[in-house]
Amino acid sequence: MRSPVPGSSRGSRARVPASRSTGGIRSAESAAAIARGDAGPVSVRAAELDSAVGLLSAVPDRVRRAFADRTLGRVLDYDRRTRADLMTTLETFLDCDGSWRRTADRMHLHPNTVRYRIGRVEALTGRNLAHIGDRLDVFLAMRALG
Question: Ranges for the PucR C-terminal helix-turn-helix domain (predicted)?
Answer without folding.
Answer: 86-144
